[in-house]
Amino acid sequence: MVEDFEVTMERREGYRFEVDLGVRGTPSLVMDEPPPLGDGDGPNAARLLAAAVGNCLSSSALFCLGKARIDVLGMRTTVRTTLGRNETGRVRIRKIDVGLHPEVAPEDSDRIGRCLDLFEDFCMVTESVRGGIPIDVTVDPTTPAERQASPA
Known about the structure:
28% helix, 28% strand
């Protein structure tokens, strides 16, 4: 089932935000920028994007292998994110390298080829990032008095 979702964030102090992922029973997450900007008290957005790409690819591979009736005994994923500056000097994510390491029985190792050809296309996050996601931004400033008067 495809459904839209909403994530909300509330600034606590400095660059530290408490993030409500909107998933019932899931505790909030603290995000923070690394020093010198923040205190590094949580992951920053780049780390969460890397984790999202790695998790989506891992899940897609597991799903495909399961459909092929290949028992995955374990899975380890590494995500290496390379940062660099663009032509105007702004830091950007330049590259994300993902290594998937599924552990399968020796007799199944020759049967995973079809999944390796298919699974990336089913990863919503990776394919969205690769294609470029349109992002619309609105800014609606409020005053402290307006914030106190509005219902949460």
